[in-house]
Amino acid sequence: MKKSTKKYLIYFFGALGGLLYGYDTGVISGALLFINNDIPLNTLTEGLVVSMLLLGAIFGSALSGTCSDRWGRRKVVFVLSLIFIIGALACAASQTVTMLIISRVILGLAVGGSTALVPVYLSEMAPTKIRGTLGTLNNLMIVTGILLAYIVNYIFTPFEAWRWMVGLAAVPAALLLIGIAFMPESPRWLVKRGREHEARQVMEMTHDKKDIAVELAEMKQGEAEKKESTLGLLKAKWIRPMLLIGIGLAIFQQAVGINTVIYYAPTIFTKAGLGTSASVLGTMGIGVLNVIMCITAMILIDRIGRKKLLMWGSVGITLSLASLSAILLLAGLSASTAWLTVLFLGIYIVFYQATWGPVVWVLMPELFPSNARGAATGFTTLILSATNLIVSLVFPLMLSAMGIGWVFGIFSVICLSSFFFAAYIVPETKGRSLEEIETHLKKRFSLKKRSKQNQILKQRTL
User: Fold this and answer.
1) Where are the alpha helices (DSSP H) in 226-275?
2) Which CATH superfamily is domain 1-183 in?
3) Does the pLDDT of residue 152 top 70, yes or no?
4) Which residues contact 229 (CB under 8 A, 6 or more apart)?
5) What's the pLDDT at 459?
6) CA neighbours within 13 Å on the CB side: how many for 72?
7) What is the pTM of this model?
8) CA count, 13 A, side-chain hemisphere, 33
9) Residue 23: which residues within 8 A CB-CB, separation 6 or more?
10) Is the pLDDT of residue 457 over 70?
11) CATH code given to domain 236-462
12) Which of 22, 58, 201, 224 has its CA 20 to 30 A from that of 291?
């Protein structure tokens, strides 16, 4: 097998967990239309079927990071692929609402685990110059999985075959299980374990020969300076600002309202005069737009940089949601205003999926030292899943209490806050190796701390 073919297979299978996350998140919207035919659901149990995936994801995120730091990225991916298969088949075979909810929790464990682990694996496998591009592959796989779910829903809707919709997730999960044969262990994890020769062999598959010695030396130097355990690192004062930045990125990625916009899109399409089947096609159109903008992000991220993309994204999503809110509050959603809302909905998705959607997955693992990268990324992904869960539970309550116009207005204020967070808090990591980023951030926050201590001492001596 050619080196280039093997390299692309490593990247493809490394990111395949993202596709499973997207599919399992997107497919339930179509399946819910017909589950009630076999398993009676009320408003509460329907909400539980949807949200229990996110609850499972919270625990999966927390566990996978620590486990991957201890046993390696590859072994944890193997376990996650088995959980994906079991969860998907259990959902398809469910005969009671309790069994269905438990199956969704099991599936959530794999979803959370993959969202925490895939960005870490891709960032550690990638050469420095294309790390951003490769990191966005995770988000491309997520939105491709969502689009695939929409297509499967559309195909099986005439047959009301919800069991096939949810059960087909086992196919890409089985592909991931087979693909593990092509996935080597992360070279940074191998160096951490003193297996330098194996790390070099892995890097020969993915890196240019002239870059291997330099990057390997940086990894060894970084590991030689680290004496603390993972838990000790996470407790260290100098890493707290990085954790807070990671938490902020995770919260803003979900709190700017992307899932609520997509949730409300079919209503807007229907008001625009489209029939039910046309509304489903409109939702598929959103899925296609997601994929296109994700590819755009892959092209831009290593050229423009993470920070600038986030700032431009914040401007775009703020203006589009503020415009949506103004239209809905002043004129309401009617046939005459619906197409205008469709336009701003499209603008919002374009800006989000080219910026905040993929960039956060790239930045989160870049922020943390290798000894704690899995655990720290797992923790921030846990926060992301928890925020997603809270927004999905609070959104219907807000919608019934104040209407969609005010809801979009509140989200536009959160979007505006994300601009200031990106502009003043988020560091730029473009063009730096993971070890260089770690050294830079450690110096930056250590200097800030020393500067603060000096100011306090000066005040005391006056």
Assistant:
1) 230-235, 240-255, 258-271
2) MFS general substrate transporter like domains (1.20.1250.20)
3) yes
4) 371
5) 53
6) 14
7) 0.80
8) 14
9) 145, 146, 148, 149, 152, 169, 172
10) no
11) 1.20.1250.20
12) 58
